[in-house]
Amino acid sequence: MIIGAIQLLAGGRASAASIRKGASSCELSGIFALAQVSPLVQQELIALLQEAGLPACEEQRLLLRRVINDKGSRAFVNSAPVTASFLKELGELLFDIHGPNDNHSLLSPGKQLELLDSFADFEHELDDCRQTWSQLEKTRQEFQKLKNETLAPEEAQLLSWQLDEIKQAGLQENEEEEILARHRIASHAKRLIELAGSASQGIQEGENCLCDQVAPIMRMLHELEQIDNEQGQIFVDRLESIANQLNELGLDLQQYGESLDLDQEELQKLDERLDLLQKLKRKYGPGIWMSSLALNVSSNACNASRDATRNWSCYKAARRNFSSNMRSAAI
Fold this sequence. Notes:
alpha+beta, Rossmann fold, four-stranded antiparallel β-sheet
């Protein structure tokens, strides 16, 4: 029974047959003192736990626990959940059970390699290999973390190209509204000149213009003023103000018409600018002119991606160093 329990704690195959009749589950646990274990095995055990991200052994005690029910089993190492395959790997390191129907550790390729390295006195090379492998795994984990948090190199390259396109466009906030207003005026310049000219003539220059119509009314009000000086003065002042405003309005309309220019080249430039804005809006969304915020955020993303690329280079260098050390040990 004890051997069977140890086999289960060492990652052996579990089945519902291990559960006592009438019970819903079976739980096994064991505390193993590592003080009696060889230093080499202790180092391998510590490295295995660190690589799996598991809690370290407290007071050189390893806690193994396994819970078996009719749906399967769960395994724990130092109270942290692990897979059955990891428990088996840990068991192969700690236990060597001999029996007529059990595989001996000598049949394990890993154990054979360990004995071969021990016979060849490769302890120094093995330490170098472990250190290089540890650096390799640390770099790989850091790179994977950056890869999950940042953009892939292909995405960063595409984003960089998009940023260049936005920068070259030189977008300004509310630029589209201003260009649309200028384009509307430029495309209707001929009609605007006609309207302003006709309105100016109707006010002060044309036959029977408004200013000419004010003159006889002004004479009537002056006559009224002679009879009722107080109210007449008020009416005359108001009409004079209207007449002055009409004259100013006529002059303003004349100057406005003269300021308009039928410049086809300018109209073409406005058309091209509007086409570019519409193209960018279709590609990047209607808020594309808020370029300053978009450029800052995107630039940060590109910088983070470049950091990830540099870490990827470190990762590949660590792999080359590890392979070189392995070849040197083999020689």
